[in-house]
Amino acid sequence: MTRATAASLDRMRRRLDEPPPENVPGQLAVDVPAGEDKPPKVCDYGNPRCGAVPVRFYANGWKCDEHQPARTSRRTAH
């Protein structure tokens, strides 16, 4: 390891031990309330909406097990 590299690493280690700055440019301090209750997600299939719970998120939205995109009707060819 060269002297320049060792000196650079020492400077970086010292910076890690410094306390964080009071304000960081470009960042906004936002007070987020802890434990904010949100309504549960519901199945958004159909009109009117299915509304079933529990649901999973798919590319086409929140769907219950019955309306998940993998479910397709199987028709037999005659």
How would you sum up this structure, described in words?
By secondary structure, the chain is α+β, with helices and mostly antiparallel strands. 19% of the residues lie in helices and 8% in strands. The protein contains one helix and two strands. Strands 1-2 form a two-stranded antiparallel sheet. The longest helix has 15 residues. The N and C termini lie far apart (76 Å).
Quick summary:
Helices cover 19% and strands 8% of the residues. It starts with a helix and ends in a 15-residue tail after the last strand. 5% of the residues are buried.
Question: What order do the helices and strands come in, and which of them pair?
Answer:
Elements: H1 3-17, E1 56-58, E2 61-63
Antiparallel strand pairs: 1-2
